[in-house]
User: Fold ABC transporter ATP-binding protein from Paenibacillus anaericanus.
Amino acid sequence: MNHVFEMKNITWLRDGKKVLSDINWSAEVGQHWALFGLNGSGKTTLLNMLNGYIWPTTGEINVLGHRFGDVDLRELRKSIGWVSSSLQEKLHGGDKAQNLVVSGKYASIGLYDKPSEEDYERAMMLMKQLRCGHLIDRSYVTCSQGEQQKLLIARALMSSPRLLILDEAANGLDFISKEELLDSIDELAHQNHAPHMLYVTHHTEEILPIFTHTLLLHQGEVFMSGLTRDVLNEECLSEFFELPVDVSWKNDRASLSKK
Ligand SMILES: Nc1ncnc2c1ncn2[C@@H]1O[C@H](COP(=O)(O)OP(=O)(O)OP(=O)(O)O)[C@@H](O)[C@H]1O
Assistant:
């Protein structure tokens, strides 16, 4: 397998409108990607497609070496971890932190199967890895938003996914919580057998150096994609936003300001 995923000539029409237009995108093994786009640019639609929840009008999709159409999507989804805010609404808030994390193994929202001792040990190991081991026995609803995000990532890691999608994972977090979460993501990427990661965001400064590649999505089209350093440049982003912007790099992260 050379590609983590590959989208070829993807188009999606809805109500006579092209929501996605001629998307060509491939993520290769060894790359972590950021997907950057404004509200309504089609990011969520693309993610739903990668997970096989919506089918392209035209084009072909391969994920983790499997071509859509030839693969049991429910099986494939076990290898894809997806952390998104829409998940929050489906969770049982009263669950204890460790139970919520363990439930990731069964790809179910609550706990329907009886987890083993090893499952709980793994959940604790992941919680410690994400620096939230102290949340054991706390109910999910009482955790802060930053803590909740970490628990959701630990939950997604429970089934050892090969692709981990982090969809606006740092949304709504204050500066400290955001940096803590980003540190955890950075550490995760440096571990042996780390999953391939796709980080979806509206904020360039969240694109850590581990995200070697970035795709800019603009009104359902690939505006530019490639090495993050090349994509996040002033000329390209000014054109992307249709607004002159300055890009300054610090610690290999790009921050934007209006010119
Ligand atoms: N089922 C649908 N039917 C019709 N239009 C849709 C449907 N789903 C999405 N769209 C439209 O497609 C466009 C892209 O939506 P999408 O949710 O993928 O954007 P996004 O980049 O994830 O936005 P945000 O950052 O605000 O979450 C929007 O204009 C949206 O209204």
Notes: The chain has one domain: 3-91+162-258. Residues 14-15, 19, 37, 39-45 surround adenosine-5'-triphosphate (CB under 6 Å). The chain has a mean pLDDT of 92. The CA atoms of residues 36 and 203 lie 8 Å apart.
